[in-house]
Amino acid sequence: MGGGTPRGGILNDLRVLPQEGRTTGPWWFGLNQVQELPEQLLEGRFRFLIDWLIGYQASGPEHFSEEARALYAAAYDTPDAIRAGNGWYQTFGQDIVDAEHYPILTMPLLGLGGVHFPFVPALLEGKVADATYVELKGAGHYLAEERPDELARELTAFFG
């Protein structure tokens, strides 16, 4: 019946398995692009994903109270909310095509980031004429929860 555990070869070439010495990539990009399945998997269970994302993307779990986690989970726990949140991921292909035809933004733009800050200027390169970039050092993905005072200061300075 069974042949044994696959090792190397085609499975590694297809990137089906995590590569030795490398962290697992953002698997949720793929999941969120699938229509209907995420709603079926996550309805009533979104708290599991919230907790995992906080553990994976935040600079520390202490920035998220039990109340905040429960509120985020409740906001995303229905099929409609999951579908709405995933719509952003599901339009990536068209967004990439459309972005090629957008004019360069001429209004001032503030780009903020924590651990993923290097992606901010890279994603906006050639798309904005007047950009200010600020890295909130030590922050993870959730700037408002992890660095609320720094974020408020930067937004106030930018918007005056």
From TrEMBL:
Q: Which domain of life is it from?
A: Bacteria
Q: What is the lineage of its organism?
A: Bacteria, Bacillati, Actinomycetota, Actinomycetes, Kitasatosporales
* The species this protein was found in: Actinacidiphila glaucinigra
What's the protein called, per UniProt? Epoxide hydrolase
